[in-house]
Amino acid sequence: MRLSIFAxxxxxxxxxxxxxxxxxxxxxxxxxxxYSHMIEPRMKTLAEMAECxxxxxxxxxxxxxxxxxxxxxGREDGTKAVAENRADLVAYGRQFLANPDLPKRLELNxxxxxYNRNTFYISDPVVGYTDYPFLDETITA
Length: 141
Prior knowledge:
- By secondary structure, the chain is an alpha/beta fold.
- It folds into two domains: 1-91, no CATH class; 98-141, no CATH class.
- Helix content is 34%, strand content 10%.
- The chain is built from six helices and four strands.
- The chain has a four-stranded parallel sheet with strand order 1-2-3-4, with helices on one face.
- Strand 3 (66-70), helix 3 and strand 4 form a beta-alpha-beta unit.
- The N and C termini lie far apart (41 Å).
- It comes from Daucus carota subsp. sativus (Carrot).
- This is NADH:flavin oxidoreductase/NADH oxidase N-terminal domain-containing protein.
- Residues 31-112 form the NADH:flavin oxidoreductase/NADH oxidase N-terminal domain.
- Its cofactor is FMN.
- Belongs to the NADH:flavin oxidoreductase/NADH oxidase family.
């Protein structure tokens, strides 16, 4: 189940998102839901990140199964989130679109392709999802 409890888009925000998140994950625990995928509160807009006092830590501690986080993670902070037990897994949405070999790039600490947001929601079969170079192509170019 993927949730963005801290989102406040178009009036969809909650007056106490942390309490809501805790209630949800405790309810999910009753059904032994395999995983919970939550979005960090640090996302201000689709393109901007900001640090904020809210956190998923208490929600992570309350969920019994696999906890996945997303929200603008890079290699270092994603690795740190797992190492500090703030998450079991980290999702890399936009970066994965632009880097079809993202796991290898993260492993090697290789440079990432920059994503092109203008191609995210178009149906062009040539431009966008399929035209980003693989690491081997960028090294030999």
